[in-house]
Amino acid sequence: MEIEQLEKVASQVRRDIVRMVHACQSGHPGGSLGCTDLLVALYFERMKLKEQDGKVVFDMDGKDEDLFFLSNGHISPVWYSVLARKGYFPTAELGTFRKLDSRLQGHPTTHEHLEGIRIASGSLGQGMSVAIGAALSKKLNNDKSTVYVLMGDGEQQEGQVWEAAMFAPHHQVDNLIAFIDLNGQQIDGPTLKVMNNRDLGAKYEAFGWEVISIEEGNDMASIVKGLYEAKGRLGHGRPIMVLLHTGMGYGVDFMMGSHKWHGVAPNDEQLAAALAQLEETLGDY
Amino acid sequence: MKKYTFTEKKDTRSGFGAGMQVLGQQNPNVVALCADLVGSLKLEAFIKENPERFVQCGISEANMIGVSAGLTIGGKIPFATTFANFATGRVYDQIRQSVAYSGKNVKICASHAGLTLGEDGATHQILEDIGMMKMLPGMTVINPCDYNQTKAATIAIAEHEGPVYLRFGRPVIPVFTDADQKFEIGKAWMVNEGTDVSIIATGHMVWEAIQAGEILEAEGINAEIINIHTIKPLDEEAILKSIGKTGCVVTAEEHNRIGGLGDSVAQVLVKNKLVPQEYVAVNDSFGESGTPAQLLQKYGLDAKHIVEAAKRAIARK
Question: Pfam families, from UniProt (chain B) (predicted)?
Answer without folding.
Answer: Transket_pyr (PF02779), Transketolase_C (PF02780)
